[in-house]
Amino acid sequence: MEYTYTLDTVNQAAKKLLRDLNIEQSVFNRSIIICFEAEMGSGKTTLIKELCKVLKSKDEISSPTFSLVNEYKCPFGDVFHYDLYRINQTEELLDLGMEDYIDKIGVHFIEWPQVAKPLLTDFKTVTINFVDFNSRTFNIY
Question: What superkingdom does the record give (predicted)?
């Protein structure tokens, strides 16, 4: 189901997304993988920052463009935020130890997941699309 939001309503969008993905604010007891697919500048990082806030992280949430992965602490467990934009091949992820990260218990938000998908077995995909300059939609697959 498509959900439309703006920057002013991104908090409500994050709450809805977590509900729709069945990610509750309870102790994370497994690896939950969410892949984000969207055009450059569509707001993937902005939405993920808001998701972390809703999950009550007190950490400074930033884009992991250069570190590839940032780890945030939440009362319910760890959140891992990946930005794989600069990765071109799945083998690069293997060399970086991606499989070890993905197996960690917690919620994993992956931007630009195309090269990682061959390593993933159980995940959901969130697509973000432009409606206009201020509005976006997301869908879950």
Answer: Bacteria
Q: What is the mean pLDDT of the chain?
A: 94
Phi-psi region of 23 (alpha: psi -120 to 50; beta: other; left: phi over 0): beta
- The span from the CA of 125 to the CA of 104, in Å, is 19
What domain range is 94 assigned to? 3-140
Q: How many residues appear in the chain?
A: 141
Q: pTM for the whole thing?
A: 0.94
SS (H, E, C) the chain: CCEEEEHHHHHHHHHHHHHHCCCCCCCCCCEEEEEEECCCCCCHHHHHHHHHHHCCCCCCCCCCCCCCEEEEEECCEEEEEEECCCCCCHHHHHHCCHHHHHCCCEEEEEECCCCCHHHCCCCEEEEEEECCCCEEEEEEC
CATH assignment at residue 32: 3.40.50.300
Number of folded domains that form the chain: 1
4-8, 21-25, 58-62: lowest mean pLDDT where? 21-25
CA distances from 96 to 32, 35, 101, 117, 121 (A): 20, 19, 10, 15, 19
